[in-house]
Amino acid sequence: MSDATPTPTATPERPQLPAQSPPVDPAETAVASGKAGSTGRLSWWRGDGGDGAKRNLGLIGVLAALIVVGAVTKPELYGDPNWVWNNVLAILQLASVVGVVTVGMTFVIIGGGIDLSVGAIVALAGVWCTTVATQEFGAGGMIFTALVVGICVGLVNGVLISYGKLVPFIATLAMLVAARGLAASISNKQTQVSSSTFINDIAARKVLGIPILVYILGAVVVAGWILLNRTTFGRRTIAVGGNPEAARLAGINVRRHTMFLYALSGLCCGIAAIMLTSQATSAQAAMANLYELDAIAAAIIGGTLLSGGRGTIVGSLLGVIIFATITNLFAINGLSIEAQNMVKGGIIVAAVLVQQFQYKSFTRLLARNRVTTAT
Amino acid sequence: MALPEDDPATASAEAVAEAPLVEAPADTVAGEVVLRLTDVVKTFPGVRALDGVQLEVRAGEVHCLLGQNGAGKSTLIKVLSGVHQPDSGQVEWRGEPATFTNPQAAMKAGIATIYQELDLVEDLSVAENAFLGHEHRSFGFVRRGTMARHTRQILSRLGHGEIPPGRMVRSLPAAGKQIVSMARALSHEARLIIMDEPSAVLAHDEVGNLFRIIRELTAQGIAVIYISHRLEEIREIGDRVTVLKDGRTTAANLPARDTPTRDLVSRMTGRTIEYVFPDRPADDPAGADLLQVEGLTRAGEFADVSLSVRAGEIVGIAGLVGSGRSELLETIYGARLAEAGSVRMDGRVLRPGVGAAVRAGMGMAPEERKSQALLLGEPIYRNVTLATFGRYARLGFTDAAKERAEADRIAESLELRPRDVDRPVRTLSGGNQQKVVVGRWLLGGTKLLLLDEPTRGVDVGARAELYQVIRALAAQGVGVLLVSSEVPEVLGLADRVLVMREGRVVREAAAGELDENTVLDLVMAGSLMEGAPA
């Protein structure tokens, strides 16, 4: 308590503490907005996480390599631009249903959880919306039913996990079994044919030469990207997954948000159920088998951290497309599904290994460049 | 303790060898320079962490490293322990140029490091930890008996023969864990032991024991590099001091006991400041009651606590770790559920939950920065706005530009270094991370700030800055409830002080009416010394 130290507010060279409310001083606001202008523009293209964008370049490289493999093994097909275009559309269509599920899965994993029940939710929503009773309400009723079933099952997951304090792995594993059981009992183990031409046309029709399913995937991906990178929901997701305790002590309702994440995943499953039902013009309890594996694998390949707090929608999309491209590659070369699965398993491991290595060296390289620009 | 370098000629290897407390390497000569760093430089992305470090450590001395957070102490430790390799400059180890390409190499050469966050495996036994990585074994089987015997020998040399080698490390108190870390260092026959803030995890009386062990080690010719923010400790245990600032050695080999505090601090900060607190305002600034806590109770943590904080007032809670003070703070904040009693803000009873507390105008800087407050991989601005990003958002869409601008304003007013708000929080030093946590609550109309150990692991310079920030907030009408284990901090900063012991408030008084000894007596009275190894 010496006289040598003046009170802080009186020290001339020390900047004043910020006022408690946002500044009203016009000069200060001008500075703030001037700065905001420059940084604001920057953030639009790099918002999906600076490092994430770089990781995604690696995935595009993998995709390019797969295309090269295809071109080498089947040069006669890849020589025909028409065939190539149609093949690209086929790959995207193949990726569309799992892609929609993966967007929801990405949110759950970034939020620090995991959802093993997605395939089962797709089956249950698909079966429920194709029952005779539901079909009486027409296409609108079917879509509504599929979405509501998806959201409700997701909510059950979410409530069990956030308020019942079950481990996500266990809660969604139980739901995986239970939802398929319920789907089988509703459908009486029969395949339920969809008689709605509107629903069946979704998969059959193209707009401007591109299948409607691909548009749906695009819409879900764009919505997911905006939700993750431009909304408070996305910020809460990253905070809750990155450090739940810090999020809680900052006043974020971690439990409620966790519940919403599973409901979001359920909603995506509902959308996927309609798409899949449309593709098969029917639904059955065994549909969407092992989708949970495909979705989790795609998210991980896309750079989503399994422990939560980091991940990108674009990366997940690329993960799904890479998987679809591999399937397509095997199909045009006439190889078996068994071989496909083995290769897919290897690719999951390889992708993660390569990415860990690549990520580290990349950040180091990036950092080194920043040093020179900073000084 | 005489400085070993006073008369190196008389200190012979034989003289060392006849004191068998610790098996000192036989060829160690007290006073001989064991480690010499010349112009060591280490750069990281965006930072020149070490920018010309000189350091000379002699056998048998306690060499203290002083420096603010971010001065490069941690990096220097990591260079010495082989975690990082210097970009340039020379490391001379026992007279020969050395490069430690990995931690194992440094260990083998005889440099052991005891980190601040002890790097023990909690679910292994004491003996397994002591010999982790170089177990006694034959044919691939660990020889548990030999290891246990050897561990017991080392422990009794350290004066803690009572710690059973078979005990799980998890069940030991912090002081016991530190002993195990030291046992590990000795199991490697270390010639140089680096201790990074060893006293930070210890209770008052355990520090004395630590010093006794350090003296015994140095008597054996082992050199110790001792890092601490507490000047009193450096005075007591240190022989020589090297001061770092901004990655550079600003003073080398100052005598630890006789160098005036003012000199040391000015070398660390580059300006002449004292370890002082901002003046209290002359007139009583406190306004209406802001927070009223009545009869708050949580079984086993605290009981029947009543207190109030007025607008513009700083209330300090003094108490030992385990006195229930952190738990009390978290309960007021709604992070723990009260079993009895009430918390009122502005006269209204708070509903349970952190959300309600934040909406009512509370903010908290928790005890553990990294695990409780920060998203380490996220940029600074997102950490600053973690509690407020919703307020800048429109219809749920965040406003990153506005958030950056606000965070930048906070960074400027708190003199955050570096100022780049897009940098991940991980890359900041402890003091600057704390500024980010406090800065979070400077946004968005916080009326009451709860601070739990706001200056833990924060250096003298940054501390003074934080004190000023806290006082300035109070001057703006913010109420502050402060918890600290450092009694001078509570007495110097707070207007009113509550002393807690074993979950109860045992004294409440204006800060001016209490002195350090009174408070220490109150805090310790009747309580068993916690943390004593069983």
Can you describe this structure?
The complex is a heterodimer of chains A (375) and B (534). Chain A has 375 residues and is mostly helical. Chain A has a single domain, classed as ABC transporter involved in vitamin B12 uptake, BtuC (Orthogonal Bundle). Chain A is 75% helix and 2% strand. Chain A has 16 helices and four strands. A two-stranded antiparallel sheet of chain A has the order 1-4. In chain A, strands 2-3 form a two-stranded antiparallel sheet. In chain A, strand 2 (206-207) and strand 3 (210-211) form a beta hairpin. In chain A, helix 2 packs across helix 16 (337-374) and helix 7 (138-162) packs antiparallel against helix 13 (254-280). Helix content of chain B is 32%, strand content 24%. The relative contact order of chain B is 0.11. The radius of gyration of chain B is 25 Å and the shape is globular. Mean pLDDT of chain B is 80; it is low at 1-26 and 526-534. Chain B has four domains: 29-110 and 191-274, P-loop containing nucleotide triphosphate hydrolases (Rossmann fold, 3-Layer(aba) Sandwich), CATH 3.40.50; 121-189, no CATH class; 277-361 and 446-456 and 477-528, P-loop containing nucleotide triphosphate hydrolases (Rossmann fold, 3-Layer(aba) Sandwich), CATH 3.40.50.300; 372-444, no CATH class. In chain B, the strands form five sheets. Chain B has a six-stranded mixed β-sheet with strand order 6-9-10-3-11-12, sandwiched between helices. Chain B has a six-stranded mixed β-sheet with strand order 18-19-20-15-21-22, with helices on both faces. Chain B is of the alpha/beta class. In chain B, helix 5 (144-157) packs across helix 6 (174-187). The longest helix of chain B is centred in the middle third of the chain and has 16 residues, at 204-219. Chain A: This is ABC transporter. Chain A: It is found in: Cell membrane. Chain A: Residues 1-45 are annotated as: Disordered. Chain A: It comes from Micromonospora arborensis. Chain A: Residues 1-12 have a biased composition (Low complexity).
